[in-house]
Design goal:
Layout lengths: L34 H18 L3 H5 L5 H11 L18 H10 L4 H11 L4 H6 L2 H12 L5 E4 L15 E4 L5 E12 L6 E8 L3 E8 L5 E3 L13 E12 L3 E2 L5 H37 L1 E2 L2 E2 L4 H44 L10 H7 L1 H26 L9 H9 L9 H17 L5 H12 L16 H25 L7 H29 L5 H30 L2 H14 L7 H15 L5
Parallel strand pairs: 1-4, 2-4
Antiparallel strand pairs: 2-3, 3-7, 4-5, 5-8, 6-7, 9-10
Helix pairs in contact: 1-4, 4-8, 5-8, 8-9, 8-10, 8-11, 9-11, 9-16, 9-17, 9-19, 11-12, 11-13, 11-16, 13-16, 14-15, 15-16, 15-17, 16-17, 17-18, 17-19
Length: 608
């Protein structure tokens, strides 16, 4: 099955958004979806409405069989088979199409958690690293959700420090089995899974992955954790006590388990960000519906400006996250397509072609985009959930209404797949590493900005307000320069020790993330306007709100970075340069907020 639509620029490097500019036709957006992809989205949305939400109470109560039953219904529609190759019972569809599925089934966090774990971190390690025998044995069952998968990496003492696991594996004297001992924690789907991907160190040293079937002697599934949120998803520990598994269930190469763990986490981060988009879209619709029905002082509270601000801020950040998600999915699909074309050309010309596209390597190319989406998406959903509670007041705080559950459920997303703190360090560290190994021309871009800011200031006028989105384009250019300038100052001050300055690394990550978010929103708004779409004005208004927020956030973060990197006259000079870069005439965000909220209220939902 191939539902690929128009591809973005071929060969765009991961992280290049910080040092290069993109035009609308170079970036994939939801407006580029093919008709088949739109049908996939509609089917997923209908599934959520007709199959997931009516069973929400049973899922949340963990009624026996409730979650597996809905997962199997998803399997009947092919949703759990999306990224499994066709030869193993899957659909093998493109990343944009699989993104649409995750997005639109994510109306209930407990289900999207179970679904995401099953199709992502529990299945993709087999797709990418499994032997032919392992794939034949397990993938058809996972693709149909006949079997449910779980992934065991975390331990009581290892958390974010994944390489510090204590679970051990030793090969039996006759070489036929591995014997595992240890404990794993926080396994999503742990209590309902049939197959576990578990990480252990062979002989206490070689970090490796293993496939363990439910019922294997020595494997004990612990009791369900009683969680603050996502209560309907199963979360259990595993205890491995002389657990004997066939030697053929070693997944991948001995000592290379970290490749499996970290590569699959890139997908996990991406899919988590996408699930947050679906959850926020659902929360926003509920917020709007309540605001239209609830009356105070003789009129619906949706008519009050401060309620409208809650609606518009949630919608604008949702728009940015959605734009980043489909841009990233499009980049992955484009890179996959490039590699397939290169292999085809190699075969035609008699050259050597590999067995297939190296999907983990392609996705690793966009690791920074995946981490940005995870951080931004999870914090965007947190905002939407909080604003939903605020809009509903006391009603939002009681269990009878869904806002309370959304609020509780949202918190875990900032912990899943590497905490947001860890992902912020990854964002900046990844960009710096790419710069140092020559894969990203970041150092040259920093030097150009450093040279430019040392020149006497040019006191030109502001952007021509008569040009559509000109102000937002100017803000984006300024935020990019501020980010590069702050990164340059911090790099000069700390050199290779910068990675130890976590607060600075996090501030730089936030600035980098604002660049990706604003540029993704802006080029999408330009594309929508160029195509004459009916929602061009609301897209422009949301982009305007994002631009003002990005400028403010970037300036505050840059001030912290500069203050931590310098002192005295040098710091005063750097702050003066920052003020010059941040110079901008503010737009009327009150008018923009009202315009966005009005469209949301008229449509009873997210306005695009």
């Amino acid at each position: 099955m191939d539902a690929t639509a128009a591809s973005p620029i071929a060969g765009a490097a991961g992280g290049s958004f910080l040092v290069e500019s993109r035009t609308p036709d170079e970036v994939f957006t939801p407006e580029d979806l093919s008709e088949e992809q739109r049908q996939i989205a509609a089917t997923a949305e209908r599934f959520a409405r007709e199959e997931i939400l009516p069973r929400a109470a049973a899922i949340e109560a963990k009624e026996p069989g409730a979650m597996p039953a809905v997962l199997r219904k998803a399997g009947e529609l092919g949703f759990t088979a999306a990224e499994v190759p066709e030869e193993y019972g899957g659909l093998g569809i493109d990343k944009v199409s699989s993104t649409l599925i995750t997005d639109h089934v994510s109306a209930l966090a407990s289900f999207s958690t179970a679904f995401g774990a099953h199709i992502g971190i529990a299945t993709l390690p087999l797709v990418w690293y499994g032997t032919e025998d392992q794939k034949q044995r397990y993938l058809p069952k996972l693709a149909a959700a006949e079997w449910i998968g779980a992934y065991g990496l975390s331990e009581a003492s290892s958390g974010s420090d994944a390489m510090n696991i204590r679970t051990r594996a030793v090969l039996s004297p006759d070489g036929t089995h591995y014997i595992l001992n240890g404990e794993k924690q926080w396994l999503t789907n742990g209590g309902i899974a049939d197959l576990y991907t578990v990480f252990a160190k062979i002989d206490g040293e070689k970090f490796s992955a293993f496939l363990i079937e439910r019922g294997t002697p020595g494997l004990t599934v612990g009791p369900e954790e009683h969680k603050m949120g996502i209560r309907g998803s199963s979360t259990c520990p595993l205890v491995l006590a002389d657990c004997r598994i066939p030697a053929g269930n070693l997944l991948g190469d001995i000592g290379k388990g970290h490749h499996i763990a970290f590569n699959v986490l890139n997908v996990g981060r991406f899919k988590l960000g996408v699930a947050c988009i679906g959850g926020a879209r659902h929360a926003l619709a509920q917020m709007i519906g309540y605001a239209k029905e609830r009356k105070a002082f003789g009129k619906p509270i949706a008519e009050f400006g401060l309620i409208q601000r809650k609606i518009s801020s949630s919608a604008a950040q949702l728009y940015a996250a959605e734009s980043m998600a489909y841009r990233t999915a499009g980049l992955i699909d484009a890179r996959m397509g490039d590699e397939k074309a290169e292999q085809g050309n190699a075969r035609e010309t008699g050259g050597r072609a590999s067995e297939g596209v190296d999907a983990p390597r392609v996705i690793e190319e966009y690791a920074v985009e995946c981490s940005i989406l995870k951080v931004y998406g999870s914090e965007m959903l947190t905002l939407a959930a909080d604003e939903q509670i605020a809009t509903m007041g006391g009603y939002g705080y009681v269990e009878e209404y869904p806002a309370e559950r959304t609020y509780r459920d949202a918190r875990i997303n900032r912990i899943f797949e590497g905490t947001n703190e860890i992902n912020r360090l990854i964002i900046t560290g990844w960009m710096m590493k790419r710069a140092m190994n020559g894969k990203l021309p970041l150092l040259g871009a920093i030097k150009r900005v450093m040279d430019e800011v040392m020149e006497p200031p040019a006191f030109g006028g502001d952007a021509d307000a008569s040009q559509p989105l000109a102000h937002e384009m100017a803000v984006l250019a300024a935020v990019k320069k501020m980010t590069l300038f702050a990164a340059g100052v911090a790099s000069q001050r700390f050199m290779t020790a910068l990675e130890d300055e976590q607060e600075i690394m996090a501030d730089l990550a936030d600035m980098i993330s604002q660049v990706f978010a604003l540029e993704s929103a802006l080029v999408r708004a330009q594309k929508i306007r160029g195509a004459g779409r009916r929602f061009a004005e609301v897209a422009a208004a949301m982009t305007g709100l994002l631009a003002e927020e990005s400028m403010a956030l970037a300036e505050r973060a840059a001030r912290r970075v500069l203050a931590a990197s310098g002192e005295g006259d040098a710091l005063m000079t750097q702050l003066a340069i920052l003020r010059r870069l941040a110079r901008s005439t503010p737009v009327d965000v009150v008018a923009l907020s009202r315009a966005v909220a009005r469209q949301c209220i008229e449509r009873d939902s997210y306005p695009i």
